[in-house]
Every structure is written in C-alpha cells, then in structure tokens.
## 1
Amino acid sequence: MDQPYRKDLSHLTWDEVYARQAQRAGLMAAWIDALQLKPGDRVLDIGAGPGYVSFALAERVGPDGLVYALDRSADALGYLEQLQRERGVRQIERIVGDAATLAPGSVTADAALVTMVLHHTDDPAGVLRSVARCLPAGAPVVIGEFHPDGPCEKGPPRDHRISPAQIEAWCKEAGLTVRDTRRQTPEHYMVVAQRTARPAS
C-alpha cells in the first residue's frame, strides 16, 4: 500500500534531503544564471533546508557576498551550519523562520531563489509576497517547481504540483513581473520573474 504524501519531509533524515537536493544539480546552473549573481551580491535562498543549493550560491557570490539561507527547520540549518564549519564557508547566514511571514526589512537581498519549496508550504502565495518585499525594484527571482504534466516518477504526486499559470498569477499578485517560463526537464520547470518597479511616491 502506498504511503500518503508527507510534504513536511519529516520522514526523511537531513542526509537524505541533502542527497535529494544534490540530485537536482543539473537544474542549478540555469537557476543561478537567471539570477544574474555577481561577486559581492546578497541572495535569499528560500527553503534552503540542509543547504546544497546555498553552497552553490555562496560560490557564485564569493567571500564578499552573502547567502541568506532561510528555512523553518532549525535542525536543517544546524546541519548546514556543521557543513559550513567543515568547509570553511562563512558567507551563508542561516535564518530560522517561515518565509510567508518574513518581516519587511528583516532581509535585504539583490535576488531570490525559491526552488522546489512552494509545494511544501501552506501559503505559497504568501511566500512570494514576502520575497518581493525583501527585494529592490528590478531584482530577479527564480522559482522552480515540479510540472503537473510531468511523469511523476520523482517529486510530489500530481495533485500536489503547482501549475506554471498558478505561479505566474501569484507572482503578479506579489508585485513580480514574469519574464520567462521554461520547462527544464519532463518533471521540472522554472519561472524567471523580476521585482516590479514601485510607483513613484
């Protein structure tokens, strides 16, 4: 009998979650390129978990940059902290918190990555609103998800997947202008958005 889908990942160890993140390494180059990151930039990694992607972002922004690794799980970020100590990576700042209720001004970033996380959250639209509030006008945001039309051999079941059209609608509501939506694999797609210019006061 199939086990019910558990979106909180509580049935996995952090070693297993890290290994899952590593399996998506082939998707990351396109995400990071779309973020247009430069040495010294600050980037917000939503749902960082044990941090596989955070390390890739840290490499791109360099020692003068900063990665804000945000996750609801203190245990996941504790795992990341241990890896940071082992690898001598200091430019990752771990933040325990709910991305949907991130206080405006608590983080100021040049870009944001929201990949393979919205289907795990209870308020995905709220996550995108919070992200937008942390970015200046014109800042890039990359959202990665599992496509509902995919084969569903990996990732969440079809009824837990979010369509590109829904992501685009939430982006618009959050103040993010969608620049591109593309399929990366049969299972995965990415949305590239930009913080909409705020009206002049």
Note: Helices lie at 14-23, 25-35, 52-61, 74-87, 124-133, 164-174.
## 2
Amino acid sequence: MVARDGLSIIVGSFVVFAISLGLWYAFPSPVSFYTMLILGALSLFNVYFFRDPERTAPPNPFAVIAPADGRVTEIVREKEEEYFHKEVQRISIFLSVFNVHVNRSPMSGRVDYFTYRTGKFLAAFKPEASAENEQTVIGLVDEHGHKILFKQIAGLIARRIVCRLREGKTVQAGQRIGMIRFGSRMDVFLPLDARVLVKKGQRVTAGETVLATFPDQGDRSSAETNDIELPESETTG
C-alpha cells in the first residue's frame, strides 16, 4: 500500500523516468543511459519511501503508542510551556529516510490544541530542532481526561509536513494523521504520572509500539465528551 500523500510524487517521478527512457531509446548515449538509470532508481525509491503498511494498534485504552517509525533518541524531563505549562516527559523519535513516514495518532481522543509554525530546518536529531524547526503541534485529550502533546518536526531535508488533524476532530489510536516527507522527527510529551516503557536507542513502530501507559484514573473534567468516534472522512487515513 502506498501513502496517498505521496501518489503525486510517485506518478511524477515515473513520468519523468518514462520520458528519459524514451530519450535513451531515440538517442542512445552514455549520458542518456545513466540519466535513465538514475531516474528509474529515484522512481523506485519514491515507491519505497511512501509505503504505507497496515498496522494494528494494541487494545489497551491507557496506552500511548508510537506516532512514527524510527529510533528513540531522547527521553527527558523538561518544562513544557505551550500546552501543559508544567514539567513533563518528552520522548523523541528520529525518522531516517529509510523509515515508513506515515504518522499515526498516539491515542484515541479529541484534538483540543493545534498549531503550525514555520521555522528552521536543522538536523532532526539535534535537541534544538524540537523548538526551532518547522512543525505542527497537536494536543490530544482522551475520554478519561488523559492529555498528551505531540509534534511533527521537519528535518534537514524535509520540506513538507502533512497533517489532517485540526481542533475539535476526534481520532482513534493508530489512525493515520499525515506524514513528514524525507526525514524528520516526532516528539511526544507526557505527564509525569505516565509510565514510559521504551528506552533510548530502541526502534519503534508507528501504531503498534507502546511508548507509555497512563494510570487508570484520569481527569474526566478535561474531556468535553466521553464518546470518541472515528469521523467518516478519516476512515481511509
């Protein structure tokens, strides 16, 4: 399965490859041959990069799952002033160009905070990328009142963040929410009472790996609705 956000790039690259193939056939030369090979390899890489495998989210309603494939680069405590306004835990996941780049919701809930910020394109593994790079910032609250914040952060060569969430939307854990093209980073911010289950350096899988779990009791007053339903417009990812 191919991510819908990459279809135009895949089709475009194959069209260019087909043109180069025709030019090589009509005007054979070392230059046209190697140009055709490079464009063909690029077309195949685009198919690989925009792959979108099916994933099955764990059934635990108190689990926070990985929103992206990649490697855990940091697990730290820090003051978060945008959404929580207090000390929280941050888990950072770095995505290389070889990882699946389709992003998924870390838990079921309602989006009660959303913002997009332009910024720099520092290497995604740098600590300052979390605050300075181009990013979308999403706050979620579940039916128990548990809150999380997560960020899609552009990297050194990433120039396009796709996010289909907005304030007021509801999502299911593991639902496709968008992607970041060509290398990036995801940060997940959790309250201190969440139990982190992953370790630095661990590889995680979007929609399946459990990053942390909440205690059973949440703050239900933080949730405006107790019924989390999947919007029809989002059923196909």
Note: Residues 159 and 181 are 7 Å apart (CA to CA).
## 3
Amino acid sequence: MVDFTVAIPTYNGESRLPQVLERLRKQDNAQHVSWDVLVVDNNSQDNTAQVVREYQANWPEAYPLRYCFEPEQGLAFARQRAVEEAQGTLIGFLDDDVLPASDWVAVAYSFGVNHPKAGAYGGQIHGDFEVNPPENFERINTFLAIRERGPKPHLYDPPNLSLPPGAAMVIRKQAWCETVPSRLALIGRVNGSTLAGEDFESLLYMHRAGWEIWYNPDMHTYHKIPRRRLEKDYLIPLIRGCGLCICQLRLINTETWQKPIVITKIMLGNLRRLTLHLIKHRGRVKTDLIAACELEFFLSSFVSPFYWLKKSLQAKLLA
C-alpha cells in the first residue's frame, strides 16, 4: 500500500525533469512514508522517456520511479491519467519546472493525514526568477502560480475562485475519483489555446461535494521562471486565458436560475474595475507592463460570459 504518489505531468521535459527528480531523490524525513514517483509523459516529442529510463536505472528502491505515456495532449488529460495510475491515497502534483523543498513529501503527507476532510491543498510557491521581475510584479505574480499567503494554514475560498494552483498541489485520490469528471471542460493550454482553469475546475467539483481546500504554509516549492515568462508577449496571452475562463468556472457550482445573476455580476464588476483602472493609470498602460496585464485580465474577465456562450453554442452544434 502506497501512502503518497508524487505525480509529474510533463511535455518535452527532458531539460527540466532532472532538477525535479534530483530534489525528490534527496527528500528528508520521508522514511516513515510509503511513497513513489510517477512521471506522466504528455505526448512529448523529445527524449523525456529516455531521461526517465536513465534515472530508473539508479533510482532508490524505497520509493520507486514509474513512467507512463498519455497521448492525448493537454494538462487536464495528463493529470487525469496520473490519478488513474497513482497508487497513493494522496497525490502530490508537481509541474516539471517546480522544485520541492527537501521536506516537501514528508510535510505534504503529514498535512493530509491530519486533515482527513481536505480534498486538496497547496503550499507556498516561491518564484525562482532567472532575472529580476519588473517593479510591482507582486500585483500579478499569482498568474505565474506564485502563492505566498503567510505562515498560518487556512481554508481557501472556492466560491470566489481563491484556490491553490495545480503546479504544486496535493489531492486526495478518493475526493478526485468521486467528484471530478474524467473529461473536464477546460483541458489546459494546448494546440495554440491559452485558456486556463483546468486545475480550478477540478477543485470546484471537489468543493461542491463538500471536500475542504486548504493552504498549508509548511509546504515550500520553487517555480523556475525564465526571462521570457516576464515579457509582455508571454504574459498578455497567459493572463487573457486566465480571464476568459472566469465565467465558466463561476458557473460550475451555480444553479440554472442563478446563472443570469452571476453573469451580470461578472460583467458589472469587471466593467467597474476596468473603468477605475483606466482612470488611475490613464496612458501608462502602454508603458507599464503590470498595468497592461491587469487591464487585460479585467477586459478578458468582462468578456468571459460571451466566450462561454460561444463555446456552449459550438458544443451544441457539434453534439
């Protein structure tokens, strides 16, 4: 019986995986935990499989390193495959560019044991920047999965889309299997799409079923952020994808009669935020990267009901 599975979804991760695997090979205080590592290769076109095989040849038997291949492109499919293949009752997801602290496995497992109603929980994700981020970057750092919410554990607020990112998140396999559909509506950034929200979608299903979503400050990870992810050409499409999924996410736990109310609140709330933002920043949006990113999020959130309606109509026509 395995207590804890570390699942690493990866796409073309041959250059990134070694750092994650080295951190996992050197975990402290995990000898009392029965755990393993599962690499989910999401249709990689590089030497990811070979990298895993080379590590398997010299990997400690105490916590086996396993590999599986998921041909359907998309992070949602990779995570679903990880849940199906995982042997642990708790599954700790790590993106292939997120490095765990030396006690991450032990601390993550302990929290799950002590919080049996937790369907999912995330910890502190710190930015490990290749270059210094721009001034005031903390205003938008959550879009790069950075979470630093203080030293005290607390419940997240799912109705307001306050949730841990999937980049470094632990889920209880029972909670996922009982509540999350095998195919999510949001599948991740794939085939040129920047639409996000697949991790939040799964957590909202758990919350609807009564599972708790927690923040555990003792779990530390470090998100490797290269220079290009701090540039406008990367950030604007990323943030647009986060905004366009807002309506779809908010409607997951909404009764049919409530949907017009929720949609109206989304549009009016973001119209107000857009107006205030433009008044405050005026012409600086063209020269201030952070202000431009905030404007993009408010605008894409405002139009998210139209985007959701378009996608719904397309789905009905294809059905």
Note: The first helix runs from residue 17 to 25.
